[in-house]
Amino acid sequence: MLLRTVLLLSLFLSGNSLASEPVKVSYDAQTQILSYDGDLTEDGFAEFKRIFSDHKQSVKWVDIKSKGGEINVGMDFGDLIHSHGLNLSVAEYCLSSCANYVFTAAVSKKIGKHALIGFHGGASSQSFDDTQLEAQIQAFPPEQQAELRRQMTAQLQAYLLHSEQRESSFFSKIGVKQEITTLGQAQAYTERYKAEQYIGWYYTVADLEKLGVKNITVLNPPWELRQLNEKVQVFLVTVDS
């Protein structure tokens, strides 16, 4: 039961309800670009570290396409990017924990004309969508559900306490405001945040800079963000000066 609880909890804490993506990591010796394509997973990060270790003297740019993943894995990526002074390019999309912790940690960022940098919440969020988690609990026999919910609640509280403390230190270290992960959950955006078609939000380049995310270059400007599709969209959040 406990193992099952941990598996369900990890699914909930990924912070991403989009379909999962297989991971592909590769290095191009000619361009000296290390590419990561897929969800941010422990196995994917291990492979990323292994290839980076083999080429760390030459890698300056990391190209990424990811819908995100578990928040601590995202911070593991961000720590590596920041500690080695790497740059990041996003041709298509970088969502959820990829936007929170990988995009923000890079020294310089290049984004494609239609690239989507989407935020979804973080460890300091005050509320989480537990619909999927509750649906999983309901699949168990009724006599097991109360204990399963109790275990998950206890684990979630411990996990979030640790993760929020780590997240606060992470953003302090990279010089970015932690509120970047939660502004779209403010009361002013409640209707849009809870709307079925929205998975999160985005910021303009100018507002990203206000939050501490600097050195952003748009390839072939102006930046004209392209939604993933009609049913999976992000909304614009503005930042006060």
Describe the overall structure.
It is a single chain. The protein is α/β, with parallel strands linked by helices. It has one domain (11-125, 168-236): 2-enoyl-CoA Hydratase, Chain A, domain 1, CATH 3.90.226. Helix content is 40%, strand content 17%. It is built from eight helices and ten strands. The chain has helices at 2-13, 42-55, 71-83, 97-103, 131-138, 142-174, 190-193, 205-210, and strands spanning 24-28, 33-37, 61-65, 87-90, 93-95, 109-111, 116-118, 198-202, 216-218, 233-236. Strands 1-2-3-4-6-9 form a six-stranded mixed sheet, covered by helices on one side. A two-stranded parallel sheet has the order 5-7. Strands 8-10 form a two-stranded parallel ribbon. Strand 1 and strand 2 form a beta hairpin. Helix 3 packs parallel to helix 4 (97-103) and helix 3 packs parallel to helix 6. The radius of gyration is 18 Å and the shape is globular. Mean pLDDT is 88; it is low at 1-13.
Question: Would you summarize the structure shown here?
Answer:
By secondary structure, the chain is an alpha/beta fold. The chain has helices spanning 2-13, 42-55, 71-83, 97-103, 131-138, 142-174, 190-193, 205-210; strands spanning 24-28, 33-37, 61-65, 87-90, 93-95, 109-111, 116-118, 198-202, 216-218, 233-236.
